[in-house]
Amino acid sequence: MSTHVAEPPVKPRAHTKPFIPDFVYFEPGALEYPKGIKIMDWVKSQDIPYKMTGSHNRITGLPGDTELQQYKNAKRTLVVGVRKTLTFDQSKPSAEYAIPISTGCMGHCHYCYLQTTLGAKPYIRVYVNTNDVIAAAKKYIDERIPEITRFEAACTSDPVGLEHITGSLTELIEFMAKEEYGRLRFVTKFHHVEPFLKLKHNDHTRIRFSINSDYVIRQFEPATSSFEERIAAAGKVAEAGYPLGFIIAPIIWYEGWEEGYGDLLKRLAAVMPKEPVKDLTFEMIQHRFTKTAKTTIEKRYPKTKLEMDIEKRKKKWGRYGQYKYVYPDEQQNALREFITERIFEYFPYARIDYFT
Q: Buried b vs exposed e over 67-87: b needs ≥16 C-beta within 10 Å?
């Protein structure tokens, strides 16, 4: 276990502005929906160049002389389309199902599993037929009554960073508020939560924030809101009465990790409301990667300091037919025990949902 003194915090990042894409594609049928027309009006108001296209699978010619430049430009590209597949994927352990409202993310987190999930299509997609998605969710809810059915809205995206464009989370929150047996949850690295603060949510939506040590955020999470911005937003969400959660992920073993994660939870406690936050949860996810992800990450972030030494890891069979590499049991146990102790030291009323 390291006794290295953690690096001192650096100046907070500049204020993180809402995402504005550099280019927008509209797929066939997108403008047949009110949301598609609304997004088109927004695109025009922002003077963003756009064009009509066929299927997003046929998008080619993204600007950039190299694959890396094309990747960075793709992350600044928005595709507006219709969600055709209304069969929801499972989303364990967070929820029963993933509810699809967007795909892709404008953040540049080096470790992100979307590196491989969206390997060839790193652009951002939003879906305009939210009513169809909600109708499908209603069927899933009704099929499981009297069981509660939870839906995760951030499996393949960070929809909070797109809410000013789509309004989709607002629609889901308002729908789920009326569902006795339905619950919504999503996680974000962005602080743009103002659209949700005055909604009638009926305690049926849990808003969670992805947080990490100062070192991890600075080294591996470019183009996301700062720790300070996220925590300020969490305070607003708590005051608005939402069930609140924090995901500490990915938990990374590095020189000074104990000081880093201890400081994280101390700072978090200092800015939370004085009264215990209602129904506060923590989820903990250790860093893991596949061989495919390792290759992709090293290509896209060639200067990354992310440790991905297979020889130092333990193999674990993944649900998608690939081995993933996690920390050996001794390191896993040290990380879990230390962070768990700090959580209950500062948040004795909280619940830890899982460590994985």
A: eeebbbbbbbbbbbbebeeee
| Residue-level pLDDT at 92 | 84
Would you state the structure tokens that stand for residue 145, as one six-digit string?
């009554």
> What is the bridge-based pairing of β-strands 95-98 and 90-91?
antiparallel
Q: Higher-confidence residue: 235 or 150? A: 150
Residue found by looking up tokens 């990380």 in the block: 335
Give bridge partners of residue 246 from the DSSP assignment.
209, 282
Nearest by Cα to 182 from 220, 240, 135? 135
Contacts within 8 Å (CB) and 24+ apart, 115-121: 115/293, 115/296, 115/297, 115/300, 116/290, 116/292, 116/293, 116/296, 117/156, 118/156, 119/292, 119/296, 121/56, 121/57, 121/74
Rg of the Cα trace of the chain?
20
Q: How many C-alpha atoms does 27 have within 13 Å on its Cβ side? A: 18
pLDDT one-digit tens code per residue, 211-253: 999 999 999 999 999 999 999 999 999 999 999 999 999 999 9
Angle, alpha carbons 182-187-189 (nearest 5°):
160
Residue partners of 139: CB distance under 8 A and separation at least 6: none
The structure's pTM equals 0.90
Tokens of 60: 């080619």
Instruction: For the chain, give every domain's residue range.
Output: 23-355
Take residue 117 and report the two structure tokens written for it. Answer: 């999930």
Where do we find the tokens 């001192």? 8
Q: How many residues does the chain have?
A: 356
Give the bridge partners for 104, in sequence order. 157
| CA atoms of 60 and 272, how far apart (whole Å) | 46
CA nearest neighbour of 336 among 349, 324, 354, 323: 354
Sheet containing 23-26: order of strands = 50-52, 23-26, 77-81, 124-127, 102-103
How far is residue 302 CA from its own chain's centroid?
23
The residue whose two tokens read 């602080």 is 191
CATH code for the part of the protein at 23-355: 3.80.30.30
Residue 314 corresponds to which tokens in the numbers above? 């333990």
Report the C-alpha gap between 293 and 109 in whole angstroms.
13
Tokens at residue 284, please?
Answer: 């903990």
Q: Give the residue, 124 or 116, on which the prediction is more confident.
A: 124
